[in-house]
Structure prediction request, 106 residues.
Amino acid sequence: YAAFPGPLVQGIFGAAYADPGRVLPVVGLATTLFAGLNIWLNYALSAERPAFVYALGVVLLGQVMGLFVWHETLLHVALVILAAGLVGNVAGALTTLGRYPAGGQA
Prediction:
């Protein structure tokens, strides 16, 4: 869908939507990153590492502020969502990995 977003969207939805241009690949990547956030969240909750939950709250506030400030076009909205997904995944790695040895807490 990154190479030919227009024909794909028109083939699925008809003429109801304009050519998505660069928005579709960015939204696709953002969606993938948000799936990663769900995995990090499930892992953090099951491993009883709440730091990621708090970090995710901060990321959410940042995303809302970013959307409030930068929403002129659909591409801007997609880029804000992409940035939030990227920051959230980095926060997931930083707050859940490598803090405890294998087999339990120290």
User: Anything to note?
Assistant: Helices lie at 5-13, 23-46, 51-69, 74-96. Residues 44 and 97 are 9 Å apart (CA to CA).
